[in-house]
Design goal:
The protein has 383 residues and is of the alpha+beta class. The protein has helices at residues 13-24, 29-43, 53-72, 148-153, 158-175, 179-183, 187-205, 226-295, 297-313, 334-351, 366-382, and strands at 75-78, 82-88, 91-96, 99-102, 108-114, 119-128, 134-145, 209-220. Residues 73-233 form the Band domain.
């Protein structure tokens, strides 16, 4: 006969078990505690069903030991350059300072973040410029953590997010710049623009980072056209070098030329005054001699002639020839005569009262030589 057939007098064992369990009601907590105490008392020396004093003492020791282990395991140390981010049951609670701290273990968790060290990342790659050229650019970013909580939990990976933001900002700036500026004079502007764009991205995403410095490491054309660009850059550098040299020469020669011009003006003014004074002296001397000449013109003329000849012959070489001698061949030392003539000219030049003859001009170029030739021509015109 089956258990679940009619008139089986409720012989189904499954139904009996369920009924018996329903009829028993909820378990008695006192009975459960007594059974647990008896087991613990038996382990710690208890002999009867009741809990002895030794059993309670052993239970207390276990509880105190567990609490002590839990308490002392909650101590942790945060480094001098770090800040600790504490989470309570998975939710942000507070920021702790460097030093020894405590948190309830299994309730609070913490993570230390270095906020003083300078971190670095590098972004590089082939990028398209505004004039549709391809250039290889490399940039080094230095940053540090300013807000530990935002650094850990605002974005999934702040360092990787910053790397992507750097690449995006650099490509945006390079895309708005010409290749010549990137390779030559526009590097500083690109660095500043990249830093400004990167700061805007960091502020928008609230990463908890601060950009310390941005270094534009390298910018070069592709290898296929590198030689041509190197030649162009070298030519531009030569142009700048020549401009600097010309500027330096101008700064050096202009003060000298200005000083020399002032000196010539002063010497010319002195020469003019001296010539005028000499002319006045000669006129005065002539006016003084005129009455004597009018009184005895022949005597005065002979005396002037003799004085002039004395001055001329006193500084010249003289050769005496006997006109009544026989027609023998005479030897005249022409070289000595010419040499003595040069000495006479030198003496006359040294005795010259003209200040303009003593002006020393530097013959560096054709302009100064023209000045010399013009001064010589003017001197000849005056003589």
């Amino acid at each position: 006969m089956a258990w679940n057939e009619p008139n089986n007098n409720n012989n189904d064992p499954w139904i009996k078990g369920r009924r018996s369990s329903h009829n028993q009601g909820p378990p008695d907590l006192d009975e459960v505690f007594n059974k647990l105490s008896q087991k613990l008392g038996g382990k710690f020396g208890g002999k009867g069903p009741s809990i002895g004093s030794s059993g309670l003492f052993g239970l207390g020791v276990i509880i105190v030991a567990i609490l002590a282990i839990w308490f002392f395991s909650g101590f942790y140390t945060v480094g001098e350059a770090e800040r600790g981010v504490v989470l309570r049951l998975g939710k942000y609670d507070r920021i702790v300072d460097p030093g020894l701290n405590w948190h309830p273990r299994f309730i609070d968790t913490y993570e230390a973040v270095n906020v003083q060290s300078i971190r670095s990342l590098r972004a590089s790659g082939l990028m398209l410029t505004k004039d549709e050229n391809v250039v290889t650019v490399g940039m080094d970013i230095q940053y540090r953590v300013s807000e530990p909580y935002k650094y850990l939990y605002r974005v999934s990976n702040a360092d990787d997010s910053l790397r992507q933001a750097t690449d995006s900002a650099l490509r945006a700036v390079i895309g708005d710049s010409l290749m010549d500026g990137i390779l030559t004079s526009g590097r500083q502007q690109i660095r500043q623009s990249t830093q400004e764009t990167l700061n805007q991205i960091i502020d928008n995403y609230d990463m908890g980072l601060v950009i310390v410095d941005v270094n534009f490491q390298s910018a070069r054309p592709p290898e296929q056209v590198k030689d041509a660009f190197d030649d162009a850059i070298a030519a531009r550098e030569d142009e700048e070098r020549f401009e600097r040299e010309a500027e330096a020469y101008r700064n050096d020669i202009l003060p000298k030329a200005t000083g020399r011009a002032e000196r010539l003006k002063k010497e010319a003014l002195g020469y003019s005054e001296r010539v005028i004074n000499e002319a006045f002296g000669q006129v005065a001397q002539f006016e003084k001699l005129l009455p004597e000449y009018q009184m005895a013109p022949e005597v005065t003329r002979d005396r002037l002639y003799l004085d002039t000849m004395e001055e001329v012959y006193s500084s010249t070489s003289k050769v005496l020839i006997d006109s009544e001698s026989s027609g023998n061949l005479l030897y005249l030392p022409v070289d000595k005569l010419l040499g003595s003539g040069d000495e006479v000219k030198t003496q006359r030049k040294n005795r010259s009262s003209s200040a303009y003859d003593q002006i020393e001009l530097e013959s560096k170029d054709d302009v100064e030589s023209d000045l010399q030739s013009s001064s010589v021509g003017s001197r000849k015109g005056r003589y």
